[in-house]
Amino acid sequence: MPAPSRRPPRLPNDREIAQAREASRQLARLLPPGDDDTAAEAPALRLVTADNQHEMIAIPPGALRLLVDMLTQLGQGRAVTVLPQNAELTTQEVADYLNVSRPYVVSLIEQNKLPARKVGTRRRVAFEDLLRFDEQQRARQRAALDELARIDAELGL
């Protein structure tokens, strides 16, 4: 299995956005009913290439859901990256994800706020740990904003 591409995701152009919206709508109709993707069988899809070649393929329901989700994001003009569950990121990739500086990420790791492991002299952060950290940060931010809103309401601002 080839290593995942480490290129930054590219924003879709207007033509790709329109194609993604339409493909997302069409594929969403093929999703199995309910949330239990393992219970239902996804239909086989027929792919047609530009030279009118046909090929039938079966796509697992979970992969079809992922494809619809990716196309939905692309249809909204967003870049998409797919990572395996056990992916490890460099400190620069973590910084890019969090939209902070790399030295700040290193300080989070050194303060034991963000779990990481060393590979030689380099630090690696498990993507799952990054997601957990990000969600905790967002929860703290929401709590702080709620507290500010409560204080504003008490002061009549």
TrEMBL record:
Residues 89-137 form the Helix-turn-helix domain. Transmembrane segments: none annotated. Pfam families: HTH_17 (PF12728). It comes from the Bacteria. Signal peptide: none annotated. This is Helix-turn-helix domain-containing protein. It comes from Pelomonas caseinilytica.
